[in-house]
Design a protein that fits this description.
9-stranded mixed sheet; Phosphorylase Kinase, domain 1; 5-stranded antiparallel sheet; Transferase(Phosphotransferase), domain 1; alpha+beta; 5 domains; Immunoglobulin-like
Length: about 950
């Protein structure tokens, strides 16, 4: 059966395929009848080899994205799918021809028509770019002419095929033939940072061809074309067609700049220029083009009048079109964009909300309704560069094809950034492009320093100085250190670089090996140590090499299988050093592990070329998570730290304070280098550092008789509460908030608590006692800083929440500065006071007729999640527990306050919600031991680990929590 017959059979239930319309490098197009909607459609079927390389899931994902684009100059995507091995997508059948066909038949069109076609194509791109979609294959064959309208096709699908067949494009096999003629230099060089400006370059090629009659570069092979785009300057258009207006030529030639930073920054800016060109000509002939000849008599008698009429009509048309467009833009912002921005923000999709808000603000600046919702998903920041005058762009970190959005030129004051890990890009003529990634509240105070292009690159990036607080379990007890500025390798040291060390005699040069060799406490001689540093064939080199050489094709892979001593010798050879754990941690940014790890090479099948994965630190470093573990300078006992995890390590290894023997040559061990620009506190940062680690599988809870003694420490005399309602706030739609107070169970203190009573449902209400995260220790005003987002949905469900102001939090702040456990009486006493505050809050709830004190639950988040391993064991009135991002700490407290002794005594149903990449509570070493130790019967405890860090996706959080409460406290009527 031939392909047409197979396709007819495969699609017979939906389409009647009639005949082939044409075939190209990417797909074959068929005319078909849409049986459901009774219309003619065009069915594009991908070539079999492309379908195999792309895959069904990726194809359908890109088709789904493309289907969201609705614009007058975008050929819409009606349908897509897979049938009998065919990957297909369906578009309207439009009478007309492609721009490629028209150019082949008629040659260059008149200049007014050229401007119109370019404007309509760019209008389509502006719409797509604003929604994060980049085409990457703009060319005449993808522009359909229907009547006087240009329609751009193959959005999303062409991009996906381009990526899946990037190697095929360059081998000359015929796939996507002709595409290299329209590819931007960075696209042809497979730059991983290709963005929307590649489309702008392609528009320049398209415009050049429409004006000059041929593309700017021609060649007999794809390689020759790509080389021309990267190295050659196009001939001036005016040298080939003298009637081209200078303004139009300048517009096209700026699109064709080799450096993306020198092109038009956005499709919107190109569109504005094209519209201005049309306006200056009254919608017909651009300025600078001679008018067509007319009869002398008509010219003499009627030209002045006609000129006035044309001007008046032209102005009227412009005013009408401008007003219509403005009205449409206002309608879109108010009726479509604003509701969608609110929905995205409320569902936690803050980067998407930010992107859409930028688009809306560009159309309707100063709109008060739009301005009022920015705080829901963003915060104002100041952005500085050295020197100033750099253009700043933003992109969604997690979206691979997120279009770069222009924010402004530095210095920028109070410019918004979303509450999300984001990519920033800084560009200034004469300076190297600087990429960064950040969360707005952790932006460095120092300006971003741009490097002059005249400075020779050294494969290192600059990290500004500042206070460094290590965020690795087992090391997070360390006090912050103020560091000076330094440079660190953008990538790990590669096989190719390390081979230079071998060829230069690095293993024979004694002065490069400056550290004493100590193995298991026993000193080794230089000769004995060197004998251990050989490859598989006994030659000097990494453990996985042969005959002093790396595996074929792996020049750009990270060098692995090297000991700490080899890494240190190579650093000496390069005039550099191994980073301290402080310098490594600052550049790695483990705070953002939930964003970085999913885009990194962890838990994989093998190493990858450096920079292949998109996981990026704040200062443009790559592969600090995964690919190769990285030796650091510091010592712990007889071991050296090796951080970040490698390609065969679990995903949580990025957050693991791991150490190994400095002689270890595992196939995962590699390194990167640093050079210190300012050695401030370098000696302090380089010192030996003990690692706090506990193997909870080997620790045993105390016996029952000992625990009974500990538990009695949490009892108190049931004296009068002397409670009072101090304030009532009914301004919220979902609840009434009462501020109450009562006597503490110790000293002569008063406890303040906030009681949130739902406006839905009927009392008596089920109630949850809330224990917050550690931010409550550092904030000093509960009235200003109380966060409700972690429990607002519980109150909306018809349940009450009481939020006590615990000892040491908010207004009750004291000498305690950290939630980490300590083996001190001060910490022990505080834990006991926190438990008494919680129990005293339940005493208060029991006095309320509007609270059902028989249906109470504990609800702890982060710090409160950790203490959820203790509190339910000392408070018998709790019927259920919900612990969000909980786990065991490696820091020790006295046994009277250690959760490991209390967890087995908890019997109530417990739900744990955790993140896979939690940097405080690693899954295997902290979360799972916590869960295993819970004394709750297995059928009544549940642990859910989601894709995230020290957080849980809100939709999952809400669903799991409410389901748990319905199950164990009962549904709310």
């Amino acid at each position: 059966m031939d392909q047409l017959a197979r396709l007819k059979a495969a699609l017979a239930d939906r389409y009647t395929v009639e005949r082939e319309l044409g075939s190209g490098g990417m797909a074959t197009v068929y005319l078909a009848d849409d049986l459901k909607h009774r219309r003619k459609v065009a069915v594009k079927v991908l070539r079999q080899e492309l379908a195999a390389s792309l895959g069904t899931d990726r194809f359908l994902l890109e088709a789904t994205i493309a289907a969201q684009l609705q614009h007058p100059h975008i050929l819409p995507l009606h349908d897509s799918g897979e049938a009998d091995g065919f990957l297909y997508y369906v578009m309207p059948y439009v009478e007309g021809e492609t721009l490629r066909d028209k150019l082949a038949r008629d040659g260059p069109p008149p200049i007014p028509e050229t401007v119109r076609i370019l404007r309509e194509v760019v209008d389509a791109l502006a719409h797509a770019h604003a929604r994060g979609v980049i085409h990457r294959d703009i060319k005449p064959a993808n522009v359909l002419l229907s009547g006087r309208h240009a329609l751009v096709g193959d959005f999303g699908v062409a991009k996906a095929v381009s990526e899946a067949t990037s190697q095929v494009h360059l081998t000359g096999t015929g796939v996507a033939l002709g595409t290299p003629a329209y590819m931007a230099p960075e696209q042809g060089m497979a730059d991983p940072h290709v963005d929307h400006r590649a489309d702008i370059y392609a528009v320049g090629v398209l415009g050049y061809e429409l004006l000059a009659g041929h593309p700017p570069f021609t060649g007999t092979t794809p390689q020759a074309l790509l080389a021309a785009h990267a190295t050659m300057a196009p001939e001036p258009i005016s040298s080939q067609r003298s009637q081209v207006p200078p303004e139009l030529e300048r517009l096209v030639m700026r699109c064709l700049e080799k450096d993306p930073a020198r092109r038009w920054p956005t499709a919107e800016s190109v569109l504005a220029e094209l519209e201005a060109l049309e306006a200056s000509s009254g919608g017909s002939t651009p300025v600078g083009l001679p008018a067509a000849p007319t009869l002398r008599a008509v010219r003499l008698h009627l030209l002045p009048i006609m000129g006035v009429v044309v001007v008046v009509l032209g102005l009227a048309g412009l005013i009408y079109r401008a007003r219509a467009r403005a009205a449409a833009e206002v309608h879109w912002v108010r009726q479509q964009a604003l509701p969608e921005i609110r929905r995205l923000a409320d569902s936690g999709q803050r980067a998407a909300a930010f992107r859409l808000a930028l688009r809306a603000r560009g159309l309707l600046p100063g709109d008060s309704a739009l301005a009022s919702i920015w705080p829901r998903f963003s915060m104002p920041v100041n952005l500085r560069t050295e020197p100033s005058g750099a253009r700043v762009y933003w992109a969604d970190y997690s979206v691979s094809d997120s279009a770069w959005q222009y924010l402004g030129t530095t210095p920028l004051d109070s410019t918004p950034l979303p509450f999300a890990y984001s990519r920033l890009r800084f560009e200034k003529a004469g300076f190297r492009r600087l990429d960064a990634a950040t969360i707005p509240w952790l932006l460095p105070d120092a300006p971003f320093v741009l490097e002059d292009t005249a400075t020779p690159p050294d494969a290192m990036v600059r990290v500004p100085g500042g206070e460094v607080d290590i965020n690795l379990p087992g090391l997070d007890h360390l006090k912050p250190i103020e560091l000076g500025a330094y440079r660190i390798g953008r990538h790990e040291v590669t096989n190719g670089e390390f081979k230079q060390f071998i060829e230069a005699g690095g293993y024979r040069t004694r002065e490069l090996w400056e550290h004493s060799f100590v193995l298991a406490g026993r000193p080794l001689s230089w000769e004995d140590a060197k004998a251990r540093f050989t490859d598989r064939t006994g030659r000097p080199g990494p453990s996985g090499w042969e005959v002093g050489d790396y595996p074929r094709g792996e020049k750009d892979y990270p060098v692995t299988g090297v000991s700490w001593y080899e890494a240190a010798a190579y650093a000496k050879y390069r005039g550099a050093q191994l980073p301290t754990i402080y310098h490594w941690s600052r550049a790695a940014y483990t705070w953002a592990s939930a964003n970085i790890v999913p885009l990194s090479n962890l838990a994989g099948q093998g190493p990858a070329p450096v920079g292949r994965y998109r996981g990026m630190g704040p200062y443009d470093t790559y592969d600090m998570a995964g690919n190769a573990r990285e030796w650091c300078l510091n010592q712990t006992g007889g071991e050296r730290y090796v951080l970040g995890g490698g390609w065969n390590d679990p995903t949580y290894a990025f957050n693991d304070a791991y150490a190994q023997s400095p002689f270890d040559r595992s196939p995962t061990n590699g390194f990167r280098l640093v050079r210190y620009l300012d050695d401030r506190n370098l000696d302090l940062a380089s010192r030996p550092i003990d690692r706090l680690f506990r193997d909870f599988a080997k620790e045993r809870p105390v016996p029952d008789q000992v625990f009974d003694i500990y538990r009695r420490m949490y009892d108190y005399d049931r004296t009068a509460l002397n409670s009072a309602v101090e304030a009532v706030d009914s301004s919220a739609e979902e609840w009434v908030r009462e501020k109450v107070s009562f006597d503490a169970a110790y000293g002569r203190e008063r406890v303040t608590a906030y009681l949130f009573l739902p406006t839905r449902g009927q009392p008596p209400f089920q109630a949850l006692v809330y224990f917050p995260g550690s931010n409550a220790i550092h904030d000093r005003s509960s009235s200003r800083s109380l966060q409700t987002r972690t429990f607002d949905f519980i109150v909306k469900s018809g349940r009450a929440v009481v939020y006590p102001v615990y000892k040491s939090t908010y207004e009750r702040g004291d000498s305690l500065r950290s939630d980490y456990a300590e083996e001190t009486n001060e910490y022990k006493d505080h834990v006991i006071m926190w438990a008494k505050d919680l129990r005293r809050s339940i005493d208060y709830l029991s006095t309320r007729a509007d609270i059902d004190s028989t249906r109470l639950a504990y609800y702890g988040v982060s710090w409160g999640g950790y203490l959820g391993g203790l509190m339910p064991a000392v408070e018998p009135r709790l019927k259920a527990g919900i612990l969000v991002v909980a786990g065991l700490e490696f820091q020790r407290g006295f046994p009277e306050v250690e959760p490991i002794n209390f967890l087995p005594r908890i019997r109530i149903p417990v739900l744990m919600l955790n993140g896979q990449y939690d940097h405080y509570f690693p899954v295997e070493t902290s979360q799972r031991p916590f869960f295993r130790l819970l004394g709750t019967p297995p059928e009544h405890k549940r642990m859910v680990v989601s894709e995230g860090g020290h957080n849980v996706p809100r939709t999952q959080w809400v669903r799991e929590t409410l389901d748990w409460l319905d199950r164990y406290l009962g549904p709310v009527p």
